[in-house]
Fold:
Amino acid sequence: MEFKYITYTRDNEKPVAKITVNRPEVRNALNKATRQELKSAVAEVSKDSSIRVLVITGAGDKAFISGADITKLKDATPAEIEIFANTIGQQLYAEVESLEIPVIAMINGFCLGAGCELAMACDIRIASENAKLGQPETSVGIIPGGGGTQRLPRLVGWGRAKELVYTGRIIDASEAFRIGLVDDVVPPEKLEERVNQIVDAILSKSPLIIKLAKKTFNRGMYTDLATALSFEKATFASCFATEDQKEGMTAFIEKRKPQFRGR
Structure:
């Protein structure tokens, strides 16, 4: 599929895909067409069983995604926004979050509003030291509508999330790391290297077990503790029916590197 506002690439040597929002002239702001292309690319990833990790980033060094394209939202009606949320708004981020494979946000520069919401839908967020993050929607007369009021408190706590949303304050990468909004901060020139280190570590594990771990995390985030623990127990037990569990434990005992086969 040909894309105009994003690039979708497959690594030639590793089972890794990358989606890059490619609108650096507007700091990678998300308009309708870009969101539709993101949705299509995510669907491609979901259908390709050979892909084991997805990286999402923004073109250039100024922005991951600076937010939604406000000029296209200013005159929208409530009915139009409801449709937007159900397709290329909340639903898009839910599709990223529900991918079976790990998704890493490689954050360079501004990561605001819709961009922060997309990053929070990813499993892991790695930021460069020049990153700026926040949910400044209240500054333009709206609230976050792509999951910002729900995923942000699950990452940083309810009080911090409310303060950031109520004030619209934009924070730097070091504060984002301190409060748990991002998982690591590195110099800009080391950003891709750090992401690749995490990718390689994930690829060294069983793809089946990684999928089971993600499924268990996602189930637990949106249910009560007792239900989540019950699901974890059942999934943990199911690992012992896999070849990779036998191989992993045998390799550990034999002091060798395991050869996982994803079954």
